[in-house]
Amino acid sequence: MAERFEAWSKVAGLDLVRYGTTADAEEIRDTAVAQPLLVSAGLAAATSLFGDLATAADTADAVAGHSVGEFTAAGITGVLTPEEALSLVAERGRGMAEASAAADTGMTAVLGGDRDEVLAALAAAGLTAANDNGSGQIVAAGTAEQLAAFAENPPARARLRPLSVAGAFHTEHMAPAVQRVQEAARGAAPADPRTRLLTNRDGSVVASGRDYLDLLVSQISSPVRWDACTATLADLGVSALIELPPAGTLAGLAKRALRGVETLAVKTPDDLDRARELVAEHAGTTAASEGRSR
Asked: Is 195 inside any structural domain?
Protein backbone atom coordinates (compact mmCIF):
# COMPACT_ATOMS: atom_id res chain seq x y z
CA MET A 1 0.00 0.00 0.00
CA ALA A 2 2.92 2.37 0.68
CA GLU A 3 4.08 2.08 -2.93
CA ARG A 4 0.53 2.66 -4.11
CA PHE A 5 0.30 5.90 -2.11
CA GLU A 6 3.64 7.07 -3.45
CA ALA A 7 2.37 6.59 -7.00
CA TRP A 8 -0.93 8.27 -6.21
CA SER A 9 0.95 11.20 -4.64
CA LYS A 10 2.77 11.80 -7.90
CA VAL A 11 -0.50 11.77 -9.81
CA ALA A 12 -2.20 14.18 -7.41
CA GLY A 13 0.86 16.42 -7.04
CA LEU A 14 0.60 16.12 -3.26
CA ASP A 15 2.39 14.13 -0.56
CA LEU A 16 -0.66 12.09 0.37
CA VAL A 17 1.31 9.99 2.84
CA ARG A 18 2.37 13.03 4.87
CA TYR A 19 -1.01 14.70 4.66
CA GLY A 20 -2.69 11.49 5.77
CA THR A 21 -0.38 10.78 8.71
CA THR A 22 1.51 13.76 10.16
CA ALA A 23 -0.09 16.92 8.74
CA ASP A 24 -2.11 19.05 11.15
CA ALA A 25 -5.82 19.79 10.86
CA GLU A 26 -5.26 23.21 9.32
CA GLU A 27 -3.19 21.78 6.47
CA ILE A 28 -5.71 19.14 5.46
CA ARG A 29 -8.60 21.60 5.73
CA ASP A 30 -7.35 23.17 2.50
CA THR A 31 -9.84 22.12 -0.18
CA ALA A 32 -7.03 21.47 -2.66
CA VAL A 33 -5.55 18.96 -0.21
CA ALA A 34 -8.68 17.54 1.38
CA GLN A 35 -10.35 16.30 -1.80
CA PRO A 36 -7.53 14.10 -3.17
CA LEU A 37 -6.82 12.91 0.37
CA LEU A 38 -10.44 11.82 0.87
CA VAL A 39 -10.55 9.96 -2.44
CA SER A 40 -7.22 8.24 -1.86
CA ALA A 41 -8.41 7.10 1.59
CA GLY A 42 -11.59 5.67 0.09
CA LEU A 43 -9.75 3.89 -2.71
CA ALA A 44 -7.19 2.48 -0.28
CA ALA A 45 -9.95 1.15 1.99
CA ALA A 46 -11.75 -0.39 -0.98
CA THR A 47 -8.53 -2.07 -2.08
CA SER A 48 -8.04 -3.54 1.40
CA LEU A 49 -11.68 -4.59 1.62
CA PHE A 50 -12.00 -6.30 -1.75
CA GLY A 51 -8.36 -7.30 -2.22
CA ASP A 52 -8.19 -5.74 -5.67
CA LEU A 53 -10.07 -2.77 -7.11
CA ALA A 54 -10.27 -4.59 -10.43
CA THR A 55 -12.67 -7.11 -8.88
CA ALA A 56 -14.46 -4.84 -6.39
CA ALA A 57 -17.36 -4.15 -8.74
CA ASP A 58 -17.92 -7.87 -9.20
CA THR A 59 -18.83 -8.08 -5.52
CA ALA A 60 -20.62 -4.81 -4.78
CA ASP A 61 -24.27 -4.86 -5.88
CA ALA A 62 -24.50 -1.05 -5.97
CA VAL A 63 -22.08 1.82 -5.41
CA ALA A 64 -22.76 5.47 -4.62
CA GLY A 65 -20.57 8.35 -3.52
CA HIS A 66 -21.52 11.64 -1.87
CA SER A 67 -20.06 14.75 -3.55
CA VAL A 68 -16.30 14.16 -3.88
CA GLY A 69 -17.00 10.53 -2.97
CA GLU A 70 -18.33 10.07 -6.49
CA PHE A 71 -14.72 10.01 -7.67
CA THR A 72 -14.07 7.13 -5.27
CA ALA A 73 -17.17 5.42 -6.67
CA ALA A 74 -15.85 5.91 -10.20
CA GLY A 75 -12.60 4.18 -9.21
CA ILE A 76 -14.38 1.28 -7.52
CA THR A 77 -16.73 0.60 -10.43
CA GLY A 78 -14.04 0.86 -13.11
CA VAL A 79 -15.37 4.02 -14.76
CA LEU A 80 -11.99 5.62 -14.03
CA THR A 81 -8.70 4.11 -13.00
CA PRO A 82 -7.55 5.17 -9.51
CA GLU A 83 -4.94 7.34 -11.20
CA GLU A 84 -7.52 9.04 -13.43
CA ALA A 85 -9.82 9.62 -10.47
CA LEU A 86 -7.03 11.17 -8.39
CA SER A 87 -5.75 13.31 -11.24
CA LEU A 88 -9.22 14.74 -11.87
CA VAL A 89 -10.10 15.22 -8.21
CA ALA A 90 -6.82 17.07 -7.69
CA GLU A 91 -7.88 19.50 -10.41
CA ARG A 92 -11.33 19.68 -8.81
CA GLY A 93 -9.82 20.54 -5.43
CA ARG A 94 -7.58 23.24 -6.83
CA GLY A 95 -10.37 24.68 -8.94
CA MET A 96 -12.85 24.77 -6.08
CA ALA A 97 -10.28 26.30 -3.75
CA GLU A 98 -9.66 29.09 -6.26
CA ALA A 99 -13.38 29.65 -6.82
CA SER A 100 -13.96 29.80 -3.08
CA ALA A 101 -11.26 32.43 -2.66
CA ALA A 102 -12.88 34.65 -5.27
CA ALA A 103 -15.98 35.41 -3.18
CA ASP A 104 -17.12 35.31 0.46
CA THR A 105 -19.39 32.28 0.40
CA GLY A 106 -20.19 29.37 2.68
CA MET A 107 -22.57 26.61 3.73
CA THR A 108 -24.94 26.01 6.64
CA ALA A 109 -26.62 22.77 7.62
CA VAL A 110 -30.36 23.06 8.20
CA LEU A 111 -31.52 20.34 10.57
CA GLY A 112 -35.19 19.56 11.03
CA GLY A 113 -38.18 21.65 10.09
CA ASP A 114 -40.72 20.93 7.37
CA ARG A 115 -38.87 20.07 4.15
CA ASP A 116 -41.08 22.16 1.89
CA GLU A 117 -40.89 25.11 4.23
CA VAL A 118 -37.10 24.83 4.43
CA LEU A 119 -36.72 24.72 0.65
CA ALA A 120 -39.08 27.68 0.25
CA ALA A 121 -37.11 29.67 2.82
CA LEU A 122 -33.84 28.91 1.04
CA ALA A 123 -35.24 30.02 -2.28
CA ALA A 124 -36.60 33.22 -0.74
CA ALA A 125 -33.15 33.97 0.69
CA GLY A 126 -31.45 33.36 -2.65
CA LEU A 127 -29.68 30.30 -1.30
CA THR A 128 -29.15 26.90 -2.91
CA ALA A 129 -30.03 23.55 -1.32
CA ALA A 130 -26.53 22.33 -2.17
CA ASN A 131 -26.90 19.00 -0.35
CA ASP A 132 -30.31 17.41 0.15
CA ASN A 133 -29.24 14.57 2.40
CA GLY A 134 -32.65 13.33 3.50
CA SER A 135 -33.50 12.43 7.09
CA GLY A 136 -34.25 16.08 7.82
CA GLN A 137 -30.86 17.43 6.74
CA ILE A 138 -30.41 20.01 4.00
CA VAL A 139 -27.28 22.09 3.45
CA ALA A 140 -27.79 25.68 2.35
CA ALA A 141 -25.10 27.45 0.34
CA GLY A 142 -24.59 30.97 -0.89
CA THR A 143 -22.92 34.25 -0.04
CA ALA A 144 -21.99 35.13 3.54
CA GLU A 145 -24.52 37.94 3.42
CA GLN A 146 -27.33 35.62 2.30
CA LEU A 147 -26.46 33.07 4.98
CA ALA A 148 -26.39 35.73 7.69
CA ALA A 149 -29.82 37.01 6.67
CA PHE A 150 -31.15 33.44 6.60
CA ALA A 151 -29.81 32.84 10.13
CA GLU A 152 -31.75 35.85 11.41
CA ASN A 153 -35.02 34.39 10.14
CA PRO A 154 -34.68 30.58 10.03
CA PRO A 155 -37.52 28.20 9.11
CA ALA A 156 -39.80 27.09 11.93
CA ARG A 157 -38.51 24.18 14.04
CA ALA A 158 -35.20 24.10 12.18
CA ARG A 159 -31.73 24.29 13.71
CA LEU A 160 -28.87 25.90 11.81
CA ARG A 161 -25.24 24.78 11.98
CA PRO A 162 -22.64 26.76 10.00
CA LEU A 163 -20.14 24.42 8.32
CA SER A 164 -16.39 24.85 8.28
CA VAL A 165 -15.93 24.78 4.51
CA ALA A 166 -14.07 27.02 2.10
CA GLY A 167 -17.05 28.13 0.05
CA ALA A 168 -20.46 27.47 -1.48
CA PHE A 169 -19.82 24.08 -3.05
CA HIS A 170 -22.34 22.65 -5.54
CA THR A 171 -23.63 26.08 -6.50
CA GLU A 172 -23.14 28.54 -9.35
CA HIS A 173 -20.21 30.00 -7.40
CA MET A 174 -18.18 26.94 -8.45
CA ALA A 175 -18.61 27.54 -12.21
CA PRO A 176 -14.88 28.34 -12.76
CA ALA A 177 -13.97 24.97 -11.26
CA VAL A 178 -16.36 23.22 -13.65
CA GLN A 179 -14.50 24.69 -16.61
CA ARG A 180 -11.15 23.63 -15.17
CA VAL A 181 -12.14 20.02 -14.56
CA GLN A 182 -13.94 19.85 -17.89
CA GLU A 183 -10.66 20.65 -19.62
CA ALA A 184 -8.79 18.04 -17.59
CA ALA A 185 -11.47 15.40 -18.23
CA ARG A 186 -11.01 15.57 -21.98
CA GLY A 187 -8.01 13.29 -21.69
CA ALA A 188 -9.83 10.63 -19.65
CA ALA A 189 -11.09 7.40 -21.19
CA PRO A 190 -14.04 6.32 -19.01
CA ALA A 191 -15.29 2.75 -19.12
CA ASP A 192 -18.86 1.70 -18.43
CA PRO A 193 -19.43 0.80 -14.75
CA ARG A 194 -19.22 -2.90 -13.94
CA THR A 195 -22.00 -2.72 -11.35
CA ARG A 196 -24.92 -0.46 -10.43
CA LEU A 197 -23.56 3.08 -10.07
CA LEU A 198 -25.77 5.87 -8.72
CA THR A 199 -25.44 9.57 -9.51
CA ASN A 200 -25.83 12.51 -7.13
CA ARG A 201 -27.73 14.35 -9.83
CA ASP A 202 -31.01 12.51 -9.23
CA GLY A 203 -30.16 9.15 -7.65
CA SER A 204 -30.59 7.22 -10.88
CA VAL A 205 -28.42 4.30 -11.98
CA VAL A 206 -25.96 5.33 -14.70
CA ALA A 207 -24.96 2.72 -17.27
CA SER A 208 -22.56 4.81 -19.36
CA GLY A 209 -19.08 5.71 -18.17
CA ARG A 210 -19.00 8.77 -20.42
CA ASP A 211 -22.32 9.97 -18.98
CA TYR A 212 -21.03 9.45 -15.45
CA LEU A 213 -17.87 11.42 -16.17
CA ASP A 214 -19.96 14.29 -17.51
CA LEU A 215 -22.03 14.15 -14.34
CA LEU A 216 -18.87 14.19 -12.22
CA VAL A 217 -17.89 17.46 -13.85
CA SER A 218 -21.30 19.12 -13.68
CA GLN A 219 -21.95 18.15 -10.04
CA ILE A 220 -19.25 20.60 -8.96
CA SER A 221 -21.81 23.38 -9.42
CA SER A 222 -25.05 21.40 -9.05
CA PRO A 223 -26.78 20.12 -5.90
CA VAL A 224 -26.13 16.71 -4.36
CA ARG A 225 -29.37 14.74 -4.09
CA TRP A 226 -28.31 12.13 -1.57
CA ASP A 227 -31.95 11.75 -0.58
CA ALA A 228 -32.62 10.47 -4.10
CA CYS A 229 -29.64 8.09 -3.93
CA THR A 230 -31.01 6.69 -0.67
CA ALA A 231 -34.42 6.18 -2.25
CA THR A 232 -32.83 4.26 -5.14
CA LEU A 233 -30.88 2.05 -2.75
CA ALA A 234 -34.15 1.25 -1.01
CA ASP A 235 -35.84 0.46 -4.33
CA LEU A 236 -32.96 -1.83 -5.27
CA GLY A 237 -33.49 -3.74 -2.05
CA VAL A 238 -30.03 -3.34 -0.55
CA SER A 239 -29.69 -5.25 2.71
CA ALA A 240 -26.36 -3.87 3.92
CA LEU A 241 -24.42 -0.64 3.40
CA ILE A 242 -20.69 -0.16 3.95
CA GLU A 243 -19.41 3.41 4.17
CA LEU A 244 -15.74 3.84 3.30
CA PRO A 245 -13.45 6.40 5.00
CA PRO A 246 -13.93 9.07 6.07
CA ALA A 247 -16.98 7.31 7.44
CA GLY A 248 -19.84 7.92 9.82
CA THR A 249 -22.12 10.58 8.34
CA LEU A 250 -23.73 8.54 5.57
CA ALA A 251 -24.09 5.46 7.74
CA GLY A 252 -25.88 7.64 10.28
CA LEU A 253 -28.27 8.95 7.63
CA ALA A 254 -28.89 5.40 6.42
CA LYS A 255 -29.86 4.21 9.89
CA ARG A 256 -32.71 6.70 9.84
CA ALA A 257 -33.73 6.40 6.18
CA LEU A 258 -33.08 2.72 5.42
CA ARG A 259 -34.74 0.90 8.28
CA GLY A 260 -33.70 -2.73 8.54
CA VAL A 261 -30.56 -2.26 6.43
CA GLU A 262 -27.38 -3.24 8.25
CA THR A 263 -24.83 -0.42 8.17
CA LEU A 264 -21.13 -0.22 8.87
CA ALA A 265 -18.86 2.81 8.86
CA VAL A 266 -15.28 1.77 8.17
CA LYS A 267 -13.37 4.21 10.37
CA THR A 268 -10.23 2.19 11.17
CA PRO A 269 -8.49 -0.93 9.80
CA ASP A 270 -10.10 -2.84 12.67
CA ASP A 271 -13.47 -2.42 10.92
CA LEU A 272 -12.34 -4.21 7.76
CA ASP A 273 -12.90 -7.72 9.08
CA ARG A 274 -16.53 -6.96 9.84
CA ALA A 275 -16.86 -5.26 6.43
CA ARG A 276 -15.60 -8.44 4.73
CA GLU A 277 -18.13 -10.46 6.71
CA LEU A 278 -20.93 -8.17 5.55
CA VAL A 279 -19.81 -8.53 1.94
CA ALA A 280 -19.79 -12.32 2.25
CA GLU A 281 -23.22 -12.32 3.91
CA HIS A 282 -25.02 -9.87 1.64
CA ALA A 283 -23.33 -9.60 -1.77
CA GLY A 284 -25.54 -10.90 -4.55
CA THR A 285 -28.62 -11.26 -2.35
CA THR A 286 -30.46 -8.07 -3.32
CA ALA A 287 -32.54 -7.00 -6.28
CA ALA A 288 -29.61 -4.83 -7.26
CA SER A 289 -27.69 -7.92 -8.32
CA GLU A 290 -30.34 -9.35 -10.61
CA GLY A 291 -29.39 -9.17 -14.28
CA ARG A 292 -26.34 -7.07 -13.49
CA SER A 293 -24.72 -5.76 -16.71
CA ARG A 294 -21.32 0.60 -1.24
From this structure: yes
